[in-house]
Amino acid sequence: MLDRILKTTLVVYDQPETCPYLPNRMASMPLRFPLQSLRGQLTDDLLAAGFRRSGKLVYQTQCEGCRACVPLRIAVEDFSPNRSQKRALKRGNSSLTIHTGPAIVDDQRVHLFNQHRNLRGLNHQGTEVDAEEYKLFLVDSCVTSFEINYYVDQKLIGVAICDRGVNAMSAVYTYYDPDYNHLSPGTYSILKQIEYCQQNDLKFLYLGFYVSSSPHMNYKKNFRPHQRRIDGAWENLA
Question: In the chain, what are the domains?
Answer without folding.
Answer: 2-71 (no CATH), 72-227 (3.40.630.30)
